[in-house]
Structure formats: structure tokens, C-alpha cells
Amino acid sequence: MAETSPCANRPIEPTDTEVELATLRDLKGISERFSALTPLVLGLAVARVGLLAASYASYSRTDDGLLTDGASLIALCLVGVLLAIVAGRRKPLRKRVVNRLMDASIALEALTGAALGGLMVADLHSPVLQIALSALCMLGASLSMFYWLRRARGTNTVVAAAFVFTALAASEVMLGAVSLLPDGIDTVLAAALVLVQYPLRLLARKKVIPRDISGTARPGDFFSFSASALERNRFLIATAVGIGALSIVIGFLRGYPAGEPIPFTPVTRLTYALLVIGVCACVIVALLRGGDRAATVGIFIAMELLAGAALILYAAFPDSLHIGAVASTTLNALMVGFTWYISLAFMSAGARDPYYYSSAGWIVWLGCRALTRVSLIALAPAQLSEALVLTVVGGVLLVSTQVVLVQFLDVSARAARADQERHAGNCEACAAEARASALERLMGLDSAAAVETPEQVMHRRAAAMGAQFLLSEREVEVLELYAQGYTQKRVADELGISQGTAHAHVKRIYAKTDLHSRQELIDYLEEFTV
Hints:
The chain has helices spanning 16-34, 38-55, 66-87, 95-121, 127-151, 157-178, 185-194, 197-205, 229-254, 266-288, 297-316, 321-349, 354-378, 386-424, 427-434, 438-442, 454-469, 473-482, 488-495, 499-513, 518-528. By secondary structure, it is mainly alpha-helical.
């Protein structure tokens, strides 16, 4: 019998050229798939750049002390008003309200940023006026960021991470270019750049909705953690608690040792920006390659390590605090991206208006940081020793790490216990375990908040019909309102378009669906969509 070659059944390995071609095809596919995110990425990045140039000195130093964190507390009080309004509503905000709020937010950020830049150019110093303008600028920038996050609601893990971390990296590139200009000029230019959000909004409407961009769901992320929505909610709550605890550490580190801002040198300023961009790239690549926890536990570990590195560098180089400030400012920037990401996860898990989750996340993150920083400034007259401050910060970092660890372990323990009870047939124990806690209700993750309103039902059905008949995003919006009984004039007013444009959209909907009256559209939505 003839011997068979040991290599006969082995698959033929691709050549180097074939591997390179396959890689290029994959990259082309990824770029085409995520190109729809470009307006959102640029919009979110520009909103952040306008804020940092006006209130954070373009990161030529860690920030502007009270002008940053004092103003943050005032701005967060105003954001809290929005949170209270949204929390008291079961219905999501109407599109017309959202659009007008965004128009006002862009204008507010641009005008206040330009005013702050004008004060710097004219060399006028009025702390009260500057803090007031900075607070209003933060309010406008925050609401603008919330809008761009809102447009990406309901998306999947990979798309969400690609969106927020690409925007974070892009903002660092823009900010680096702006920071090369003289003080005041950079702020005015950034304020002018903020106005680019107006055309970006129009461009975003012509692109694919982010939730319709394909992406792989990961079993261990915030968007699809485990098979249980209950476990995902508790995982999200644990993360929110961890963000608050780590934000306290950031508040100490950014103003070490007495709360004053730390100036950068050109080298350390560049190092910080490259670190942020590098970490963002690593997170995105890891998720594209299938890493389950890159944007969850992985980034938490990275932020804890950065906090530890900042402590070590501050202690090792007491006369060159800008070296330690590289780590603390990188940590601060990553926390911004992580909070954006978690806000999107909450929007996917909860049923309240997206502004509820983005506002709450912003208040937890910036509120904890600002309160700590302002407290550190208030204690400056006591002339605390640097050794004592380092020890306190180290202790707070240790506690925050333990808080995150205990929260995650509690999620795992609860999940295991619920699984055992389920297998044992103990339905009463399962029901008690599944009962929403006060914290879940506060964070909008309880089942009571998930009752769909008629408007939400129609939104879901219109989206399903739009996918079936390949309707554009604008046509889906027109269909949703038209099927609710809106006249074409009211549809036009609600969406901020002309009545003729609304009429043209209705005609195209009729043509694409082969339905010829409002009632036929309603009957189809009720009978053939779920």
C-alpha cells in the first residue's frame, strides 16, 4: 500500500501576498462600515475641543483651577435641571425640542467661548465674569455632546466603542493643533470651530443610523453582558459606582498637591496627547479583534494603573510635577471617553430619554471630580504636606479599586445565586432577586421604566417598516409622525423642514411601500410590524 503524505490532508496555507490582500479587504470593509459615523465623530470631537480651549487652557496645563472645576459645579447644577425635567417624563423629548436645544447649545458654547477668548486677548481679568462664562460654555458643550451621543443610541459594542474613542482621539489631534496658537486666539478659533456642528448635523441625517451599522455583540460587555438583562443592569450600576470612586482620585491628582493647575512643557504636552491616542487605538483594535472586555474591565484596569503611575511620578519628581501630570491628564481624558461609552450602554439598557442617562453620567463623573478639586483648593491655606496628600490619594485609590472589585464580585455572586435558585425551581427566590433595587430605579434600569409609550411603539414600528422598505432616516421620521395623525404642515414644523419637503417625503413613502393613504400605512404598521 502506498504511503500517503503526512501533508496531504493539511489545509493549504495562504501566501504572504494573499494574507496582505485579505487584510486590505478587511480594512476596506471596516472603513466603509464605519464611515457613517464620521459626522458624529467630528461633532462630538469639536464640542469637546471648544470646551477644552475655553475652560481648560487647551491643556497647556492640567486645567484652569476654579475656572474649570468651580465652573463645572455651576454647569452641573444646570444640567441637573435638565435631568429633573427628563426624569419626570415617561415620554421621550420630541424631536423638535431636541433640535432646538441642540441649536441653542451650539450657539451658547460658541458665543461664550468667543467671549472668554476676547477677555484673554484684551488682557481683562474678571474672575466672576470668567467663571460665569466658563459655566455657560460647559453647559453648551455638555448638551452638544449629549446630542451626539443621543444619535448613537441603541447601537452595539463595537460601533459604540469605535465612535466614542475615535472622537476622543480626534479631539486630541484638533486640540493639539489649536494649542499651538497664542492664548485667547486659540479659544476664539475653537469657538468658531464649534459652529461646524451645524452642517455636521445635516450631514449626519444623510448617513446610516449608527444602530443599523453591523457589529458583533460580545457576551461580556455592557451592551450584552451575560444572557440576563438583570446581570447587565447590575454590571452597569457597579461601573457607575466605580466611575464615581475613581473620579474622586482624579480630582486629587489633577491639582496635586494644593489644587493649583500644573503647567506642561512642550514634550510632556505631546506625550500626554500621544498616550491618549495610543490607548484609544488599542481599545478599538482589541474590540475589532474580538476582545470581550477591552472597553469594560480592561479599560478600568488601565485607568487604575495610570492613577498609580501618577502617584509614583509625583513622588519621584517633586520638582517636575508636569511628568506626573501626563499620567493624571491621560487618565482624565480616558474617563471622558469611558463615560461617553457607559452613557451609550445605559441608553441601550434603559427605556428613559437618552438625555437622562448622559446627564446622570456627566454629573457623577464631573461632580465627584470637581467637588474633590474644589475641596483641595479650599484646604490650601492649611499647607498640608505633600507626603500627607500622597498618602491620602493612595488610600482613596485603594478604596476606589476595592469598591469596583467588590461591586463586580457582587454581580457575579448574585448571578450565580440566581442561577442556582432557577435550577432548583425556587421561583419566589428568583422573583426576589430580580426585584429592582432603589439604585436601579434611580438609574432608570427598572422594568417599570421600560413600559413603552404609544410614541415609542410607533417609533419602533416605523423603524421596522423603514428597514423592510429601505426608507431613508428622514422618511422613517416622517412616517412615524404621519402615522400618528400629524398633518404634513405639523410634520414639517416638528422636523424643521419645509411643508413641500414633507409632502415629497410622504409621496416617496407611498411609492416605496405601494400604499396610498395614511390609513393603509397605519393598518400595515399595526398588522405587519412588531
